[in-house]
């Protein structure tokens, strides 16, 4: 049994869950994870079916579905492109979240909003806790931080920050490394950006566990708030790329470079490791290591 499957065992909550951004990395994993929860009712909608900026549409869908939980997996995640399209990033990552929070508050729905380690500047030498003051370096980070604030306007709300998310679907660091490894003789990867790569199915499992416990406690307001979840341990992007090569066995050389040598529009935090003690203590969630996450990625294709 993988760490992914273990986290889902014996979870049979009855909450009806509405997922926005269901076509994204996390959204797909939530829908996949629901297959292991026969009593769970999960409804997923992507941008093609639901514009989260359309408050009336969100209100109608949430009310008619009878959902008790809304997980917002929708986000503008193109970090560099956000520097050129700040209005679009803010529209999705902040303004739309304000609308979701208002809808959830009106209907008494729990809002679970996903945020990012990029709300920090990476200047700390120790993992960031939920009490540390954010200081984003990019439009993406700033818009996600604003979204957190809007989410907390909903009385029943939980914000979960994660880092370096990847899955089998969509565009992510692993898919980029695998593509470049097949196309080139050598790949240059920054060695001075450090965080915790997080396998999206592990995050999905943790979210289900949190929701189950909160529902069992009748949505106790003491459970609401900010939490960090990422796979345990940390590494540089260069080390991560090396481990990906070991699993996939492509022939291209993986060479380290400094961030200053890598042309990017957005500045990224140098060290954005998240402290996960709070979610461990509060919900008994014990994140698998990032190495386990990578193993699951290459050995567990789908549930």
Can you characterise this structure?
By secondary structure, the protein is α/β, with parallel strands linked by helices. Helices cover 41% and strands 16% of the residues. The chain contains 11 helices and 12 strands. It has helices at 3-8, 25-34, 55-65, 79-84, 86-107, 139-151, 173-183, 200-216, 237-248, 277-283, 290-299, and strands at 16-20, 41-45, 69-72, 110-116, 157-162, 165-166, 186-190, 194-195, 198-199, 225-228, 235-236, 253-257. The strands form 4 sheets. The chain has a 6-stranded parallel β-sheet with strand order 2-1-3-4-5-10, sandwiched between helices. The longest helix has 22 residues, at 86-107. The radius of gyration is 19 Å and the shape is globular. Mean pLDDT is 90; it is low at 1-13.
Main sheet summary: 6 strands, parallel
Helix content: 40-55%
Q: Give the CA-CA distance, first to last residue.
A: 11 Å
Task: Encode the helix/strand succession as letters.
Answer: HEHEHEHHEHEEHEEEHEEHEHH
User: What is the spatial order of strands in the main beta sheet?
Assistant: 2-1-3-4-5-10
Mean pLDDT: 90
Shape: globular
The count of strands amounts to: 12
* Helical segment count: 11
The value of Rg in angstroms is 19 Å
List low-confidence stretches. Answer: 1-13
Instruction: Give the strand content.
Output: 15-25%
């Amino acid at each position: 049994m993988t760490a992914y499957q273990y986290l889902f065992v014996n979870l049979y909550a009855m909450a009806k869950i509405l997922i926005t951004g269901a076509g994204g990395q996390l959204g797909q994993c939530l829908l996949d994870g629901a297959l292991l929860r026969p009593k769970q009712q999960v409804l997923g909608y992507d941008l093609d079916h639901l514009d989260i900026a359309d408050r009336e549409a969100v209100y109608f869908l949430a009310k008619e579905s009878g959902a008790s939980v809304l997980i917002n997996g929708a986000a503008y995640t193109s970090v560099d492109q956000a520097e050129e399209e700040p209005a679009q990033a803010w529209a999705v990552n902040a303004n739309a979240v304000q609308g979701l929070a208002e809808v959830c508050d009106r209907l008494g729905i729990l809002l679970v909003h996903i945020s990012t380690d990029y709300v920090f500047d990476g200047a700390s030498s120790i993992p960031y806790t939920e009490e540390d003051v954010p200081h984003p370096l990019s439009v993406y980070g700033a818009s996600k931080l604003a979204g957190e604030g809007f989410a907390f306007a909903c009385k029943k709300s939980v914000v979960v920050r994660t880092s370096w998310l990847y899955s089998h679907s969509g565009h992510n660091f692993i898919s980029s490394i695998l593509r470049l490894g097949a196309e080139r003789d050598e790949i240059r990867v920054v060695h001075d950006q450090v965080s915790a790569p997080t396998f999206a199915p592990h995050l999905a499992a943790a979210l289900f566990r949190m929701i189950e416990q909160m529902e069992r406690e009748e949505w106790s307001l003491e459970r609401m708030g900010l939490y960090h979840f990422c796979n345990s341990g940390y590494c540089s992007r260069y080390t991560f790329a090396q481990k990906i090569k070991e699993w996939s066995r492509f022939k291209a050389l993986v060479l380290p470079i400094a961030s200053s040598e890598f042309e990017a529009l957005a500045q990224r935090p140098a060290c954005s490791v998240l402290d996960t003690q709070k979610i461990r203590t509060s919900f008994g969630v014990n994140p698998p290591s990032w190495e386990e996450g990578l193993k699951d990625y290459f050995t567990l294709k789908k549930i």
